[in-house]
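Exercise: predict the fold of this chain.
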Amino acid sequence: MAKIKTRRTAKSAKNSPAAKDKVTQPQVSKNDSFPVVGVGASAGGLEAFIELLKALHPDLGMAFVLVPHLDPKHESAMKELLSRATKLPVLQVENAMRVEPDHVYVIPPGREMTIQEGVLQLVARRPQQPPMPIDIFLRSLAEDQRNNAVGVILSGTATDGTLGLAAIKGEGGITFAQDSKSAKYDGMPNSAVASGAVDFVLPPARIAEELENIRKHPYIARGKDHKVDGLEGGYDLNHLFRILKQVSKIDFSDYKAGTIRRRILRRMALKKVATLAEYISYMREHPPEAEALYQDILINVTSFFRFPDAFESLKETAYPALLKGRSSNDTIRIWVPGCSTGEEAYSHAISIVEFLSGARAEVPLQIFGTDLSESAVQKARAGIYKENVIADLSPARLRRFFNKVEGGYQINKSIRDICIFARQNVFNDPPFSRMDIVSCRNLLIYLGPALQRRVTPIFHYALRPVGFLMLGNTEGLLGAGAEMFDLVDKKNKIYTKRAVASPVNFGFTVDRFDGGNGEAAAREAKEAERKPAADLQKEADRMLLARYVPAAVVVNEHLDILQSRGHTGHFLELSPGRASLNLLRMARPGLLFELQQALEAARKSNQTVIRERVQLENSGNLRLVNLEIVPFRVTGNSEQNFLIVFHDAPASAVPPSPLPVSGPKADRAKDKQIEQLKQELAATKEYLQSIIEEREAANEELQSANEEIQSANEELQSTNEELQTSKEELESANEELNTVNEEMQHRNTQLSQLNNDLTNLLNSVNIAIVMLGQDLSIRRFTTHAEKVFGLGATDVGRPITNLRLKVNIADLEQSVLDVVRDMVPKQEEFKEPGGSWYNLRITPYRTSENRIEGAVLVLLDITDTKKKTAN
């Protein structure tokens, strides 16, 4: 529906000439919140209006706006007639009139009306057939008043008001319809009820009573900003989410808090409960209420070409870019997540078909519409909409893309074949891929920031390198999502994909609720009880190791110290320079040579090696140490480790001072000691040189092996990425195949039903009818034709000219060919030799695409008619 752009401020409305004449209206502060009730009716509506107003309480605190179908060429006496039925002031609406509580407003004839900021706006009725003033007003009421809007549909014909009630329910308002028993004409109420947008179906007097009950509920009485215990978070709200998840398999905890809150409050108002705890109790006692709340949360108000400027922007920005360099067999693919009942998907199909027609381009099209609601998907597949849709469509589009059917309009077959609909949870199910456009204008407004950040990478992944993302006018990209797309059209929220990685986690779900009835909490409590005992044991072990265990260290195969026990300061110390825990760099003077030899021997033999009376120097003093090296491996780890234990040698083994005072013996001892030290130094140098050479060779081999491993790792990583990409593409392709398969199954069911209908129709008709193909072969015939023409089941598929018929029809072949060629029906009468007269009618066989693919023969026996005429 095209929105009326005229907007009047409260000040200008107050100073207008029309407002100066309404001095009787009380002034209400803008901050006052009260419900506005829109009431629509057509034929039989006057009696329903009177019955409703008679039953209304005069101090209800609601404003009532009545929108009947009035003759635009005559003045209306509706105001005077209704004034006699109520104590409330009844006013005929004038332009820029502000609504006040406890007043009744009646639309004047020949006008359409909307409401903006509580002010009624009038415009001349647009030339449309049939008129839809109720839908126009109720949709603007929903947008303006949100959950303070109430919609009522009373007696009337056709379908006006159905879309309006759906809009009110979608914004959190309350909806009513008159029941069939009390309605003089039940077309409008029944249409609204069938759409699923009606909360109460009651006679007018009961509607007034229910309005009074609802007015007392905090949801209505305190306005949209009132607080309800439990709805801001906590156990009750989480419990409600668990109940919803059991019903729907969907976690709504991260959906937008305001939207979920309004839906819950609305259901609480309908069930007349004031607290969330009471509502949960009611839900337990009435299991269908959980499903009703789930459907309320899913309700999604949409329409054809919502915000038309966005589709015009696509024709200027996206469509031309998609056609550049595209081959004639490269399909343009569009995905509409949250498609609801299909209007958005069909709008894209119509828009791009119009563009391609203007560009004289023939490119295959494929549009995927997905939604959580199975009932919405079924309606989208059928493509049948109420007559109200004419308010959103131009006459040209209505003629070109819609067929008139009973009760409304249906999208023509060529557009329906482009669109494929399926149920999908965009967070859990694999996404589509290779899309040219993703149109998400009905989904993000319901998601919280966490879910919006999850879904943005999914849309980025689904798009081709030159792909476009289309969001709703009030939506935007959050956080890292803004770095994945470039803004093309700020006003209409159209983005193009950036060439960055898509951080998508397929099949990732978060379940924040514990479904184990406290089992996890019990396990945690038991672990907490065991924890102090475990800590006590660890502390006792630490004290024993510190006091009584000899100094020891554990090193890995690279001789890096992993753990230490006891006091190791007498044997090891940090070396100058960069800090290192390598055993050989930390060994005190005198230990290095023996440590190296013992470690090498333990490594080769894989057995314990002991070195006794190893002499080391510590602060200028000499001491003897016994070394014990124990090789071992840890289960599950192939790396070899070593335990090195340091024992002080017995006191009797300690040598005297290394420097004798004087004498020849002291000199000989000194020379002997120097010689010994030289031999040890030479052996150490030789050993170190061999170790260095071995290490250098080993390092070269390791470096070469490392390079090969890095190369292999890069190849494996590249292969893994390719496999991951292939997996994602396969998952996407599988999802598309499942979607197409589901659509095909649905269409097969329809075709089977149509085939059954056609078979039963042909069998029940007592007329000789034969359907022929273009080659004059028999396709179908009725039971009566079998008797008259003498046909049998084996004759199907054979040309009728090759059969010997019971009736002799002259020039049958030429007559049929003439009808197929000229597309003009032909009729003739002829007489059989036996005296029977027949009337033969030959009509073209037309397909749904208006192609001629054969002819239909109808043979009527008119013998009795001829005899009566002759007499």
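Check your answer against the key: The first strand starts at residue 36 and ends at 41.
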